[in-house]
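re: ur msg from earlier - yeah i can do the heme C complex, just paste it... oh wait u already did. ok heres what im feeding in:
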Amino acid sequence: MKSINEIVKNKPWLGWLMFFATMFVVFLLGLLASSIMERSAEAQFAYTPLVKFDSSEPRNEVWGQNFPREYQSYYRTADTTFKSEYNGNVMIDELEEDPKLVVLWAGYGFSKDYNQGRGHYYAIEDIRNTLRTGAPMNGEASAMPNTCWTCKSPDVPRMMKEMGIAEFYKGSWEQLGDQIINPIGCADCHDAETMNLRISRPALVEAYERTGKDITKASHQEMRSLVCAQCHVEYYFNKKKIEGVPYLTFPWDNGMSCEKIEEYYDKIEFSDWTHQISKAPMIKAQHPDYEVYLTGVHADRGVSCADCHMPYKSEGGQKFTDHHIQSPLNNVANSCQVCHREETTKLIENVYERQRKNRENQIVLEELLVRAHVEAGKAWELGASEEQMKPILMDIRHAQWRWDYAVAGHGGSFHAPLETSRIFSTGIKIAQDARIKLSRLLASYNFNQEVPYPDIASKNKAQEYIGLDVKKLKADKQEFLKTVVPEWLEKAKKRESTYQVKNI
Ligand code: HEC
Ligand code: HEC
Ligand code: HEC
Ligand code: HEC
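and the outut:
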């Protein structure tokens, strides 16, 4: 083989070619280096704070000046165009979709109005709009306590700091209407000084303390779920802790499973309401997303809520956390395919399959529950005694608790498909037990026919069946939105204009 020297001697142009090729490569490397330097300068620029604000600043717009990418992605939760088979961010009227719910919640606020959750952006608007908070006007009080604001706004930690925790929970819902203005945001999950994730809601810290755990010891990965567990959990208003205060409490003292929480409620004889037809002492499940998620395989493998609902995103050379919290099915590439190699359609199908199969049992359980309530109503009508009814009503309470616990989070069928399916099936068994006892009891009063299934084919019919006058409620609500809410906004604007924001 000839040496390079010899080759170049014979063909001098080749030498020049090699020279220029080398120069070209050096030039490209130079470009790359400059681009990297520019990007890191950009990165520094992006994280150089422009404004300084108070640690309890509630306005997302103000935080957004320092962190425009997170802010802009966060405000995409205002989008309401994505619909998956069962969820998404479009407004779904759940009572219209499934009128059986009206009967299951008869005598309770949820039978008036219940929509499936939308983006965080709408948290304040939706709580004002729902018929459940009523139309508190002219000094009249809402039937709901202030505690209802707790999972809606970064104004909540601000007010708790000002008023004290128990004082915050005290009083009826309209009392803080001009204070709780900004939708769920930065201050709910972040420390303003360090931008570290933080737990801003005392109920979660207290629940940890009662079970001998210290939440400040949680790992970084756990925090990526615990920030969500401030709100996406089961809770109740404990009226016995401090006289006259509906104190927000997570019922985790005996454990976090559906059965352990039920045991907790049974022991303190807690009920949210007495069912209008069956007179059963009912428990309303809230949204135990976190508790159910913990029993699934993803939690078992250390995958956090944020891994799927807040994946990383790249923009202009910047990697950041996508704050557009939504159904991950609208973003499978970033939410799932960082870990799973399957096609998008396949992964979506996997989710739907689990949801559809659980839905089958859900519908069976709902129908049994409607029947059990109506049959219990018949038994009372025929003269059944409290003592005869007691075990039946406890069955109805437990069966409906299971149904609600499994559906209320909206993600359970995927987060933990096996656990969700197990809960539905134990619910079905208990509802059947109630109905066997009921048919014996009815027979003892010589009633041996089927108690007719009510005509509840639509939301209207179902609400009529339970004697609810929604027209009046709606008219009052419109008046409230037109007169009271603008006053709240006016007051809030004045107050916020006094907050200190310094340019740096
Ligand atoms: C301060 C309380 C709070 C915190 C913290 C919170 N959420 Fe929410 N979340 C809500 C409320 C309230 C809604 C319903 C808003 C509505 O419909 O008006 C909601 C709605 C949602 C939805 C439905 C959105 C849609 O468009 O379909 C998802 C998904 C969700 N949250 C996930 C999360 C995740 C994941 C976390 C943690 C990273 C989290 N949330 C933290 C209170 C909270
Ligand atoms: C529901 C909780 C939640 C809310 C609300 C929230 N964040 Fe975050 N944020 C997170 C999580 C989770 C991370 C990832 C943190 C980690 O893994 O270290 C994060 C990360 C960040 C980071 C670090 C850089 C990055 O992108 O990873 C910044 C900056 C940030 N958020 C700013 C904001 C701003 C500004 C707002 C308000 C517009 C906001 N966040 C609202 C949960 C939240
Ligand atoms: C492995 C990924 C993954 C993890 C981890 C995860 N989720 Fe989900 N979540 C999903 C999927 C998929 C759905 C179903 C979305 C659909 O049907 O459109 C969902 C649905 C939801 C919904 C209902 C969404 C809607 O559009 O109404 C909420 C709320 C929710 N999850 C909250 C949470 C919370 C809180 C955690 C942590 C405690 C969590 N998720 C953990 C993937 C995940
Ligand atoms: C951070 C990694 C990670 C992310 C993100 C993730 N997964 Fe997974 N997933 C896992 C692991 C780990 C398992 C357990 C199976 C294993 O160990 O092989 C799993 C299991 C599953 C299973 C089978 C278990 C079951 O519940 O029946 C399905 C289906 C699944 N994932 C779908 C999804 C979908 C859909 C998304 C996006 C919404 C997603 N995963 C996001 C890591 C991830």
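cool cool. The chain is about 50% helix and 5% strand. ping me if u need the other ligands too
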